[in-house]
Design brief:
By secondary structure, the protein is an all-alpha fold. The chain is 52% helix and 0% strand. The protein has 8 helices and no strands. Helix 2 packs across helix 5. It is elongated and about 65 Å long.
Length: 174
């Protein structure tokens, strides 16, 4: 049905079309636009039928070797998480080519292995920080802040869980 559509369009053309379509649909599109420009530099001249899983994997490996721009020490390579976000943006653009434009039959990103991500950091308050936090909370004029902070500290509940808490959900016996 769509014979030859993938040969008639390049990845650059797809990224421009996708960017125009997506820009007003999400907030903070500027970050995504920068990453898509990097993909365009790596694979933009390729016709869509030439954007294969092996080419994407090769570009992924190139991204993993690139030095970071900010955040981590200078000279260190990009993390697996950063490259995974970049791959997710490319995959979303290619999914747009499949679903909306019907330029591709299948998203080639689906068959590319994603780099491993480091485990998240778990942070606890130090012995010095806890009294300072409680003093600051007590000094606040908000009447519900102290019970909310104490509930968070003692249960590990998140902000949204505490703010959405109802009396029917509380069981003092257990």
């Amino acid at each position: 049905r769509h014979f030859g559509e993938a040969k008639r369009h390049t990845l650059s053309e797809l990224i421009r079309d996708y960017s125009a379509w997506k820009a007003n649909r999400i907030r903070h599109f500027d970050e995504r636009k920068t990453i898509l420009a990097r993909w365009e530099a790596l694979l933009g001249d390729c016709a869509l039928d030439a954007v294969t899983p092996s080419k994407i994997a090769s570009a992924r490996d190139d991204l993993l070797k690139e030095p970071v721009q900010r955040g981590r020490p200078k000279g260190s390579a990009k993390s697996g998480a950063t490259v995974n976000r970049a791959m997710a943006y490319l995959s979303d653009a290619l999914a747009y080519a499949v679903k909306e434009k019907q330029w591709l039959e299948r998203n080639p990103c689906e068959r590319v292995t994603k780099p491993k991500e480091a485990g998240g950091r778990v942070r606890f308050l130090s012995d010095d920080e806890l009294p300072r936090l409680l003093d600051a909370v007590r000094a606040s004029s908000h009447p519900d802040l102290l019970p909310a902070v104490l509930l968070a500290l003692t249960t590990g509940a998140r902000k949204g869980e505490i703010l959405g808490l109802r009396w029917s959900q509380i069981d003092f016996k257990r």
